[in-house]
Amino acid sequence: MVKMINILEECKEAKAIGISGHVRPDGDCVGSCMSLYLYLKKELPQTEIDVFLDKPAEIFNCIEGIDEIHTDFVSEKQYDVFFALDCEKERLGGAESFFDQAKKTINIDHHVSNSGSGQLNYIVPTASSASELVYDLLEKDKIDEAIAKAIYIGIIHDTGVFQYSNTAPKTLQIAAELIKFGFDFPKLIEETFYQKTYVQNQIMGRALLESISFMDGRCIVSGVDKKTLDFYNVDSKDLDGIVNQLRNTKGVDCAIFMYETDVLEYKVSLRSNEKVNVAKVAEFFGGGGHMRAAGCTMKGTFYDVINNLSLHIEEQLEAEAL
Length: 322
Prior knowledge:
- The protein is of the alpha/beta class.
- The protein has two domains: 7-194, Alpha-Beta Complex (inorganic pyrophosphatase (n-terminal core)), CATH 3.90.1640; 198-321, Diaminopimelate Epimerase, Chain A, domain 1 (Roll), CATH 3.10.310.
- Helix content is 39%, strand content 19%.
- It has twelve helices and eleven strands.
- The protein has helices at 7-11, 27-43, 96-101, 130-137, 145-159, 169-179, 185-194, 198-209, 226-232, 242-247, 278-284, 302-321; strands at residues 16-21, 48-52, 81-85, 104-109, 120-123, 212-214, 219-224, 254-262, 265-272, 288-289, 293-299.
- Strands 6-7-8-9-11-10 form a six-stranded mixed beta sheet.
- The two termini are 35 Å apart.
């Protein structure tokens, strides 16, 4: 049993509190950071509270206070308490220095690869999301509609609107409590999870059209180079959902999507079913994540990356067949 953290007790003497999550923040990262920010801002009105993230996708503009996020990471401030959410400290990017210099550090995460980076840690790999863990730690009578909405967004994004295997009965019970606050949750799901811009659909179509099936159809891969990203004028936030769509291909046990971030460097996303532990694959290459959803950054050509990943995926598939 992981020991709970009394957030207000840990923060009661703080004059300055910082919050951050991983680089290229997804829905769970944004939802967990913003819900904690709104909660602390409400309960500790005399305390200076800052949240640092790379600029979130525009779909999250519906979250209250989203425009108060600091995206420049330029500060010499030492925080009394600093929270790292949805990641270990090494994935904080520009905020890692704040974490290292803080008087007290708290790490809240659900990734199995995170052994705990803080002086205080609430790491629960069986949880659906970091947002679910933030909900665990908040005093329920102090949650308002804005906080509930941010938590809900985080949960739906990391569970694929409750379709992934990380969805537990507890996850659905929490979601039921959250929608009691009365926000328009069908609209929230549609506009933040399913809805795509014309250009996002174009780049997804391109990625699907140029995908490659291999290992007798049990694996599928697609990649987008920098030239193509520039042609469509898209960035990483516009690529969400591509790897999941690849994974939906009939007969596929493991899907790989990668995009070029630098010369001979790719950001790789992996999705699988119960036959491949992609966290194990990603960890070998310095990444991490969950058994069914993980990622890493790899060097080499597109085909170098595929060949290196294939060795580890094929090893698991062969072991499963024995």
